Amino acid sequence: MPDTLPSDSVGLVTPETLHFDEPLALACGQTLNSWDLVVETYGTLNSDRTNAVLICHALSGHHHAAGYHTMEDRKPGWWDTCIGPGKPIDTNRFFVVSLNNLGGCHGSTGPNTLNPETGELYGPDFPVVTVLDWVNSQAALANRLGIERWAAVVGGSLGGMQALQWSISYPDRIRHAVVIASTPRLTAQNIAFNEVARRAITSDIDFHQGRYYEHNTVPRSGLMLARMVGHITYLSDASMGEKFGRELRDQAYQFGYDAEFQVESYLRYQGERFSETFDANTYLLMTRALDYFDPAYESGNDLVKALEKAHCEFLVVSFSTDWRFTPARSEELVNAMMAARRKVSYAEIDAPWGHDAFLIPTPRYSAVFSAYMGRVAREVGA
Questions:
Q1: Which of 48, 167, 301, 303 has the most CB atoms at less than 10 Å from its CB?
Q2: Where is the AB hydrolase-1 domain (predicted)?
Q3: Residues β-bridged to residue 83
């Protein structure tokens, strides 16, 4: 890190843990009587509390979306390219709230935190949560912060699903929903990818039915394989080809089964690093929440009818090479919004990076995102 932070950074930030004693009823039928959320905020809430933006994270995300925790940090928050002074989510204009969802493994109540009723880690006893459960907990967070209505709820991938759920479940508490690289529900192929990832984890000899904490171990190999499978789906064939091609590590075949190609080495590195920082039970929870998401389900499988409940305006963004959540799925969502007579703006961005493109700034993506959020800011007088 340099001695000074970038001028367009939110700077040094400190997470805060907020405790809730109000019971939270979950879709699975269980109730969390008390729970914590870890939150970071950037920018300043205006006097009439109208300029708040909620950031919803994807599967492996967390509360640290922008800025740095220390001057020694090598990398900023996961969406620092989009959050900060002069960036699409401009912290000179917006008060930005980013959280780690329930069931996460970065401080919010989840499998790797203590169950107050037993004094032991929740582990596999932590209840299965859904996108709706997350949105309900986020509504309680908004109440705690004194925010009656979000200027926008913004998210990519699984985060976009949360923004969409907000529009349906709390239509009077959200002005705009920004749904990026997302989908109204998973395809069978996407559910299949998630099942392979879960089986990789649960088949690991160190999984111990999710009670690996008690055995002082983690299912490292299974979590590594799950991440490798997932990571492949986040990239496009073109981006992998451009980055790795068929390059060998040692310029010659070794006639064995170790990592000989650069792409193999890269995937192993990503998997190993992930297995050291992420909780396996949380990965199971997050992928199942993805599988269950289907806002049309409660409306007779009619997405148009579900979206008729929404009052907000929408921005939907897709990426040309995203084969995990293809542009066709975003177009399906946009068509349903139009049929429901909702106001919606849509852009398909030509970008070579597959699903991960929502994390990578490109001129057109940044221009579309900035223009829309600029309009949101003007609406709320920010």
A1: 167
A2: 51-359
A3: 89
